[in-house]
Amino acid sequence: MHKSERLFQLVNLLKGRKVAVTAKQLAERLNVSERTIYRDIQNLQTSGVPIEGEAGIGYLISECDLPPMMFSVQELQALLIGSRMLEAFSDPEQAQHAQSAITKIEAVLPTKMKQINDDLPYYALGYKHDDRCQAHNKVLREAIENKNHLLMTYQDVKGDVSERTIEPLGLVYWGGKWTVISYCLLRNAYREFRLDRIVSLIALHTHFEQEEEKSVLHYIDLVKSAACDNKNN
Description:
Layout: H1 3-14, H2 23-30, H3 34-46, E1 51-54, E2 58-61, H4 73-89, H5 92-108, H6 111-118, H7 131-146, E3 148-155, E4 161-173, E5 178-184, E6 189-194, E7 198-207, H8 216-232
Antiparallel strand pairs: 1-2, 3-4, 3-7, 4-5, 5-6
Helix pairs in contact: 2-3, 4-5
């Protein structure tokens, strides 16, 4: 690993942390000696990076604005693939942001990598994406960000239609179908709703509080735990 790349990685490891990281931990992570870490820390401090701490205690970067870190070619390709998927399967507003990101990523690819990038065997085709799902995606995304209740009319797999108020917690894409993970006030429990089965959505002006045990991450942990139990049984 070149020194410049190691320094970028070192800054990324320290940036935004609340707990100091020891030189030993950093050395193990970057596969170098502790002496190299001490030397790199000193070089970064000399160049103006606000690293706090000392040997034997640990290091972290104080709150400040730092320029964006350099990505490797492989990281840029991963970001490009993810942006293409977002462009194809999200709502129009997000798709526009994704296209802007793609343009910026492609602009910084090394010349020798541009052809390799064009030949990547990953494609995201959104021509089958339902316009109504895209509209629901936008309403749901905004409600999740603002923590607003939604009044939803929903048609289940049997064709039965119901109306319920939900607390939208997160959107999950299952490789073909979007679902919104919600806390359903009718059932007082988590529920998944497929976007292609939502008839209508109305954003309400009431807010909800997201809690540790009422969140999309908590729901996913429950799903994983249940899957493990079923596998073991």
